[in-house]
Amino acid sequence: MRSYQEPDGYTRDLDGLKSQWTYPQSELSTNTAVDLARKWMIAANMDVNSLNHDCEMQVQYWHMGDKFVPLYAVIWSQDGKTKASVELFEPTKTLRKLRIEDNKYNLRRALQVEDRNRYLDAPTE
User: Fold this and answer.
1) Rounded CA separation 32/49 (Å)
2) Which has the closest alpha carbon to 27: 118, 90, 104, 99?
3) What is the DSSP letter of 52?
4) pTM
C-alpha cells in the first residue's frame, strides 16, 4: 500500500495509472478483482464468508467512456452502509487500500498493549 507525502501525490499517481494503463472497455473483467479482494481479506483474517452472506458486493472501476483503467474498488455494503472495501490495481496485483468499517467481520485478536495504563497516565507534552 502506498503512502503519499506530497499533497498532490495521489493525483499524480492516478495520472500515471491513466497514462500507462488505459484499456478498451471490451477487455473489462471484474472477476480477477473480486478474487484478489477476497484473497487479501482472507489473508488479513477477515470473515469473508459472513461479508458475502450479509452484504451486497459492488465492484467499481475507473470508467472513461469506451475505455477504462483497471483500478478497482470492491465494496461490501449492507443497508447502504459500507462494511468493508478493498482498492486494488489489477495489472500489477497491487493492494492500495483495505478497510473494515464493521469490526464484527474482523477475526483478528484485539491488540494487547503491555502496561497500557502506564502510557495512558503519562503526562502529555
Assistant:
1) 18
2) 90
3) H
4) 0.79
